[in-house]
Specification:
This is Deoxyribose-phosphate aldolase. Its main location: cytoplasm. It is built from 9 helices and 8 strands. The chain has 221 residues and is α/β, with parallel strands linked by helices. Helix 3 runs parallel beside helix 5, helix 5 runs parallel beside helix 6 and helix 6 crosses helix 7.
Length: 221
């Protein structure tokens, strides 16, 4: 089991509410620095930040539906990088993958990868709760082939749900340590966070980070 500070260093402290304000984001960044999280994750419209955060900055692309063209996602990603994003979490077109078009999945990830050159980090949100095991494997395989750095379970907005230990373990097995695995969506307490890490998660997406780290229960993302 990880210690509190070790767990905090795996966290993308997240605020993706449509009603978030600039003041909310500044408070998020201050709290992230206080808690010792790896990064903050905010909507792309909040960038560039009008202050210097003491943690990495992540944002989202094609969020939350993924039903955007590859060109749109690539443009959004490139703009986010220009505006100071260190990391980009993109949502794939879930429907295309479920229809059997794994080539589209790989191609759209590659388009965004090209827009987020190293040292930028690209995470691929596959919405694992909406996929079969075979589809999870296909999404992870496509993400690796396209040059992504992480695969990520969920947006936290899909009605099918968020992260599960089963999905995280399957994703970790598929990428075999060559990519990171981010668990996000529905991780609301200490035990759940620890369980995701035990299953293979190397990064966590949390909004109620302080409550989780303090051993309580979060009502957030």
């Amino acid at each position: 089991m990880l210690e509190r500070t070790e767990l905090a260093r795996l966290v993308d402290h997240t605020l993706l509410s449509p009603t978030a304000t600039a003041a909310d984001v500044e408070a998020l960044a201050a709290e992230a620095a206080d808690l010792g999280t790896y990064s903050i994750c905010v909507s792309p419209s909040m960038l560039p930040l009008p202050f210097s955060p003491r943690v990495k900055v992540a944002t989202v692309v094609g969020f939350p539906s993924g039903k955007h063209t590859p060109e749109t996602k690539a443009f959004e990603a490139a703009e986010a990088v220009r505006n100071g994003a260190d990391e980009v979490d993109m949502v794939i077109d879930i429907g295309a993958l479920k229809s059997g078009d794994a080539t589209h999945t790989e191609d759209e990830i590659r388009a965004v990868r090209d827009a987020v050159p190293a040292p930028g980090i690209l995470k691929v949100i596959i919405e694992s709760a909406a996929l079969t095991d075979d589809e999870i494997v296909a999404a992870c395989t496509g993400a690796e082939a396209a040059g992504a750095d992480f695969v990520k379970t969920s947006t936290g907005f899909h009605p099918s749900g968020g992260a599960s230990e089963h999905a995280v373990a399957l994703m970790a097995q598929t990428v075999g340590g060559r990519l990171g695995v981010k668990a996000s969506g529905g991780i609301r307490d200490w035990d759940a966070a620890q369980a995701m890490v035990a299953a293979g998660a190397t990064r966590l997406g949390l909004s109620g980070t302080r409550a989780v780290l303090d051993g309580g229960t979060s009502e957030g993302y």
